[in-house]
Write a structure and sequence with these properties.
The structure is a homodimer. Chain A is an alpha/beta fold. The first copy, chain A, contains 15 helices and 17 strands. In chain A, helix 4 crosses helix 6, helix 6 packs across helix 8 and helix 10 crosses helix 15. Chain A is elongated, with a radius of gyration of 26 Å. The two termini of chain A are 21 Å apart.
Amino acid sequence: MEDNHINMQSHSCDPDRPAHPGIFPTREAGKSDHQPGGSSVDFPVSVVLPAGGTGERTGLQTPKQFCSFLGRPLISYTIQAFERVSWIQSIVVVVAKENMDLMTDIVKRFQHKKVRAVPGGSTRHRSICNGVRALGDGEEERPKVVIIHDAVRPFVDEDLLYKIAMAAKEQGAAGAIRPLVSTVIATTSEGYLDHSLERAKYRASEMPQGFTYDVICQAYQKCSESDFEFGTECLHLALQYCGTTAKLIQGPPTLWKVTYKRDLAAAESIIKETLSRSACVITGGSEQAVTLADALQKAVGALDMELDVIPDLMGENARYLLKEWNFIQVSVNRSCLSEVEAVLTDLEAANRALLHPLVVIWVHLSGSDELSVSGREVEPAAIMDLASAAKLRNILLYGIQLHQTKDTERWEKSVLRVAEITSALIRERSPALVGQLLQA
Amino acid sequence: MEDNHINMQSHSCDPDRPAHPGIFPTREAGKSDHQPGGSSVDFPVSVVLPAGGTGERTGLQTPKQFCSFLGRPLISYTIQAFERVSWIQSIVVVVAKENMDLMTDIVKRFQHKKVRAVPGGSTRHRSICNGVRALGDGEEERPKVVIIHDAVRPFVDEDLLYKIAMAAKEQGAAGAIRPLVSTVIATTSEGYLDHSLERAKYRASEMPQGFTYDVICQAYQKCSESDFEFGTECLHLALQYCGTTAKLIQGPPTLWKVTYKRDLAAAESIIKETLSRSACVITGGSEQAVTLADALQKAVGALDMELDVIPDLMGENARYLLKEWNFIQVSVNRSCLSEVEAVLTDLEAANRALLHPLVVIWVHLSGSDELSVSGREVEPAAIMDLASAAKLRNILLYGIQLHQTKDTERWEKSVLRVAEITSALIRERSPALVGQLLQA
């Protein structure tokens, strides 16, 4: 059954996987200047992120927005998705009173900018209303458009935000929609089918939604206590109390709301996949290392991962320190770890592991002579100690050892194994396996 | 950031995770005698599984129902969920003509019983109709109740099937429902909000659904070409053409339909989690091994995995060969692999790896004396060769090595590392890492 195991992580039947949204910017937060459609947003836009949910539907003790993915809470991913958009001026996160300290810690620890936390109300609409009011309090310019989003929809992309903001300014209100997955039915009070709706006429109302500041303020001023208590749909309030008919915009499937326990696994998988598309191989320039790196590039490419081969991280190549999440250091005939230590130092200097755990793989190519003399020339304890220290700084270090050989078939088998192990380590990002020296 | 990495696989904030349905029976297929509510189903029930989808919404080339999870297509998991229910007499899978051979291969390879494949029609209703007609053709008794389910909802449990079957017999029709996750809105033809529905009055119609054979046959006899062409809801046909009002039954969240790419990751995660709840430690009976096993039991328990400690797989303990997916063989001061080879032989004899890949971990506890003499006394090539052979038979073999020491702190650290590595290997089930001898 061997063939069925290959590339299981990304599902073996998945050669043409669609791209996930670019949730991991290569530039610094706030420096994006992407302007979809060639035009820019020339009016102030702010964001309200209700994050007061209690996590009932996942069956977890921790609310979903504070669940940790690769060491970082979900809410931080969502904040990051907005923070990197240059034309968004500020983000107000609305959290339950008891989570205010936690939220403040998160903002500090992950160095979020543009963010304020305000306490929520007893219902969704009361919380959003608090958030909208807080936008008027700040020192910054009053926004023209307010985007409302959910803390538990981390994968929103700039293109959709742009469309929502523009349509909201034009129309007063705009919202993202998705086709219905299931037929919707009306039930009798006794639990029987009353009638089913014609699926094509209806849509699921999703987030983000956008409103002009005036429309959303007016809607919350005029709406009833019953709306505050039982309502869930902002577009409905805009229609009923301001006569504003929202423009509906179809969003991508990644908009979905992390709701059930299975969604946590789905979100983690999207994050891991986005971090695992490419890696950078550092050869040191030696001929043997370059030969190995080129062979690896081909073999890992067949496993759907792109490798860039570079001699070092200096000069022009220092840019990889700002854009890559995975590094492979090839060392030839040198059993000391100095080269990989240098990579770790560079990564720390670049503060690269702040938002995501980095993977560093040390591939040690030993001469066939060494093999017969000592069997295993690297002291396992050395790499384990180095890895334990790196893990504290959010860098996952692993080792792979292979032996030079003139036997072509054996060599190719070894290279293939290095490729498979590399791909698995990068995709799985397992903290338990750091410091291991694996054999190829 | 070390603390954030612990137990990431099952989400660090998740101490009270709800159980997933028991999709992996411990008995042989077809031998279940579970009778929810204490009563049995005393009428013939058959199942129609439409599996003709083309996978458009996942963006994959392979339709979802044929996507491979741990080496087995999704449709096989769904078939298994029905096959293990004793009171279900037969299952008709409806597949596109071009996939008939593939389906036949799947049934043969995974030794499914009770299953026939029939070719589908051009729409969902035509396919289901073909399946229902095929039920009348067989040699077996004509069913009293027909359950219709989706091939891409693999996690249906017996309890819900029972409720659906009983309600269908009583009422003529029954269907599973779930609360709506998003507000449903009606749109104008120009893409604006028309109105939003009051969420509490509506439900999502899911699968399974059940009908008496007479109702579903009559519905398909009477319904129009337009229904066949554009309709999606069987409950609607029963209501419109037979005047049968379906009983609606709320199902668990695991009922969901694998629709988007993210759902593939969610499904894989549920399967892996279900396989990773427990493991069985075989000690050979030596005092040192038992001491280690007991310490491991405690440490792995803290990582949310249950360990049973047994001396061997003989007599009463042979039952573990029929119910466990993960085995840990502890060997003391013996650098040969004979004990783990014996476990592999037993597992193969039990045909245990037919439906799921098994994990076997060889934990080698070496005396502190050996350490100073040879450094590493097990030849890595030996376990790699054994693992390569085992992988072909769907068994994933890994090794972990630790050294006996009188230094308590060092010993406890080693045991903790064995626990973390064990837990990670079992949860990740990575084929790329088989044959590695990891250091604890």
